Amino acid sequence: MLRKLIGAATLSAVLALTACSGKDTAPAEGDMALGAPEGAKVTVVEYASVTCSGCAAWNEQVWPQFKAKYVDTGKVRYVFREFPTPPQDVAVAGFLLARCAGEDKYFHVIDQIMRSLPELHSGTPPRDILLRTAREAGLSEAQFQTCVADPAGVAAIEKRIKAAQDAGVTGTPTFMINGEVVADRSLDGLSQRIDPLLSAK
Questions:
Q1: Is the CB of residue 43 less than 8 Å from the CB of residue 76?
Q2: CATH class of residue range 2-14+29-194
Q3: How far lies 194's CA from each of 26, 112, 113, 160, 189, in Å?
């Protein structure tokens, strides 16, 4: 069971998530980013979880168009920040796996886990889903086992959770454009906030 692999300390930290005030606009440790370089005119930060249905829906329905319009063109810096949600042990293991797969495969692994949520909800054992994803990313079962039980990786996620709390994040998906929370996560809603910033002098 993944709960045994993660460890009680991490689970207690994840389960104790509470809301804090403040905004985070500066780069943070562990940021995974695509598109424009640091210091871009527009930075879009998404706090998400691989076990969040809303995140998975955005990933499938909006992300491809958003990526093509803003990320692939280098207009916007897109930053993905990890914020585990229930089942938290599975989310933590998924994030650890994505990082173990390497930076070049990180977003692909995140995508694959999110697309597997219907299986998870239908009763497929989470370990089966994650192990399959690990193998597709080129990791052996032994490497997967070591990865999801890595104390340093677990500690790093705990720090990222705390940073998200300090940024005022209480749930996922949460989107911020240049540090301001955005409620409308549709492509049109995001574009209405992004385009004026891009055209401003």
A1: yes
A2: alpha beta
A3: 18, 28, 28, 26, 9
Q: Where are the domains of the chain?
A: 2-14+29-194
pLDDT in tens, 92-134: 999 999 999 999 999 999 999 999 999 999 999 999 999 999 9
Q: What would the two tokens of residue 114 be?
A: 């999110």
- What is the sign, positive or negative, of the torsion defined by CA atoms of 55, 50, 123, 9? negative
Nearest C-alpha neighbor of 25 from the set 185, 201, 177:
177
What single string gives the DSSP state of each residue in 17-74? ---------S--TT-EEEESPTT-S-EEEEEE-TT-HHHHHHHHHTHHHHIIIIITTT
Instruction: Give residue-wise pLDDT tens across range 60-86.
Output: 999 999 999 999 999 999 999 999 999
| Share of residues in the chain with pLDDT > 70 (%) | 87
Three-class secondary structure of residue 180 per DSSP: strand
> What's the predicted TM-score (pTM) here?
0.86
